[in-house]
Amino acid sequence: MKTHIGKEKWNRAAALYVRMQVFVMERGIPLKEEFDLEDHDETIYVVIYDGEKPVATGRYKQIDSDTIRPGRIAVLKEYRKKGLGEAVVKELEALGKKQGCTTSVIHGELSAVGFYEKLGYTKESDVYYEDGVPCVTLNKQV
Questions:
Q1: Where are the beta strands (DSSP E) in the chain?
Q2: What is the pLDDT of residues 64-106, one digit of tens each?
Q3: Taking the model in full, what pTM does it have?
Q4: Are strands 122-123 and 71-75 parallel, antiparallel or unpaired?
Q5: Which of 6, 42, 73, 95 has the fewest C-beta atoms lying within 10 Å of its C-beta?
Q6: Strand partners for 93
Q7: Model confidence at 133, in pLDDT bands (50, 70, 90)?
Q8: How many C-beta neighbours within 10 Å does residue 2 have?
Q9: Alpha-carbon span 116 to 106, nearest angstrom
């Protein structure tokens, strides 16, 4: 397994491939909702590759000088429970730290709250819907 962090078109394509498989094909999220204005040429993606195959991803967004918002964390079904989601989140947090950020805010699906809590995030909101999916906001000092 190897990890690449960047905004190159090939890495972006790899990230979008994983998200297409997980969110659109598997979870049924509409295409137009999954791929939004945050997916552009300057967006940084963390992608984990098994050889040449992209298998896990996450999107980096810096909200302000102190805060990052990791998003679109996805792992292909056959690669889950191997620590790849955690590795993606930690890479995004490390990138934020390098930029001087101290807080990470995640809009997590209800089904993923336990995963984020194991990584040190705490739930900070009531349930709301994002892209038709029930979510909560979670925070962590990084």
A1: 2-6, 44-50, 53-60, 67-68, 71-75, 103-109, 122-123, 128-130, 133-141
A2: 999 999 999 999 999 999 999 999 999 999 999 999 999 999 9
A3: 0.93
A4: unpaired
A5: 42
A6: none
A7: confident
A8: 9
A9: 9
